[in-house]
Design a protein that fits this description.
Growth Hormone, Chain: A; 82% helix; mainly alpha
């Protein structure tokens, strides 16, 4: 690891704009996510309803995400993101208004989560694919690692800030701040100087374009195992985050601030993981490191499920964040460097669909199981299933370990 390599991607002007615009916007996003989940639990006292909100956000991924990938290959990815981000900003202000006015009800949050999921279904493939337009290919792994640093640095600061603001001023201010934060990324996208995007070949039919992207993804021996791994991680790995507010209150006897600390500790681990990956530079053992993270994550998750003190819980969730982010960052970097440019939007839409589409199913499963069997049993079961699936994939796909 070399510190001089950690911020290599920032030498590209377009990426610098992206980096700082995303930093502001993601702080607001994490504030809203944290405040919204706690508000839902406060209104309903139901872990299952936390799963319903997660499911509502992810459902549009199944309906629109692959089509969003086709659009991302056919039109300017910047323009597509500007439209989607502007719509997200409006939704944040609507949520803030409903909360300030005292009219907010659980079903309002479900509907707004669904609409946010619609916007995300078009934004996510473009957001994943545009990175290749912002940096040179040799710096793509560093750029992805710095993106993850951004996301997870926000996950450290945003939830903690949300906990304080929620307790002091109420959730409405968290939602309003998020709405304002979208202006930063909209301004950054507007100021970028990008080369014209090449049109995707064979684009006369949407259906044929979709089939081409799916066939390419699942016939490439380096891509399909990574997609499967992301699916396993999303379905059984991220589910613990859905019931975090219930864990903070029921298991640790805490409040909104406790929930914020847990979320921040997970984010801190992810930041450390991303910075480590960025500092490695152009290393040639991504497959081996990915395989290591596959087994580290469920073991740390099982350890988290067994501890009951807040300090130990924060330590374990920090390690969970390190392992999970290493897994996701390496998967993204391997995909970005393996995929051909003309199908990049469609392959990344399949990646995004795997992540955002399976997340609500995992969240719904975790919320409903926690409602009837308890939060500890839910996390232990998720960790065991993840470990078994990872072992099967590790044995069945030795090519995964050889990826560079």
């Amino acid at each position: 690891m070399r510190l001089s390599q950690t911020f290599t991607a920032l030498k590209h002007p377009n990426y610098r704009l992206w980096f700082f615009g995303q930093l502001v916007s993601l702080l607001g996003t994490w504030m809203q996510m944290t405040a919204q989940s706690y508000l839902v639990f406060e209104l309903t006292k139901s872990p299952a309803f936390l799963g319903y909100v997660t499911f509502a956000f992810g459902l549009p991924s199944w309906i629109f995400m692959l089509y969003g990938g086709v659009i991302a290959d056919r039109m300017s990815r910047r323009k597509l993101m500007l439209i989607a981000q502007s719509f997200m900003m409006v939704l944040a202000f609507v949520l803030a208004w409903l909360t300030f006015s005292g009219l907010i009800l659980p079903w309002h949050i479900v509907i707004l989560a669904f609409l946010l999921g619609v916007a995300n279904a078009f934004d996510a493939p473009a957001r994943q694919a545009i990175i290749f337009e912002l940096v040179e290919k040799k710096d793509i792994t560093n750029a992805i690692a710095l993106n993850s640093t951004l996301f997870n640095l926000s996950a450290v600061i945003g939830p903690a800030a949300a906990g304080v603001i929620y307790m002091a001023f109420g959730p409405g201010w968290c939602f309003a701040i998020n709405g304002i934060s979208y202006l930063a990324v909209i301004a950054a996208l507007t100021l970028m100087k990008l080369e014209p995007q090449a049109a995707s070949p064979n684009s006369s039919s949407t259906l044929s374009a979709l089939k081409e992207g799916i066939k390419y993804t699942f016939s490439d021996p380096a891509i399909w195992p990574v997609i499967c791994l992301v699916g396993i991680a999303t379905l059984f790995g991220f589910s613990f985050a859905t019931i975090m507010p219930a864990w903070a209150v029921t298991i640790l006897n805490g409040d909104a601030a406790t929930n914020g600390l847990l979320q921040s500790a997970r984010g801190a681990g992810a930041v450390l993981s991303a910075l480590m990956l960025a500092s490695l530079g152009r290393f040639a053992y991504r497959g081996n490191l990915l395989s290591a993270s596959v087994f580290m994550f469920p073991l740390f998750l099982l350890a988290f499920a067994l501890v009951r003190s807040l300090p130990l819980s924060l330590l374990m969730i920090l390690l969970v964040g390190i392992a999970l982010q290493l897994l996701m960052n390496l998967s993204n970097a391997i995909l970005q460097t393996q995929v051909k440019d003309h199908v990049r939007g469609r392959v990344m839409s399949i990646y995004s669909l795997t992540h955002f589409g399976l997340m609500p199913i995992g969240g719904l499963f975790a919320g409903m199981l926690a409602e009837f069997a308890g939060e500890p049993f839910t996390i232990i079961l998720s960790g065991v299933i993840f470990l078994l699936c990872a072992l099967i994939l590790w044995i069945a796909t030795p090519q995964l370990r050889r990826l560079k």
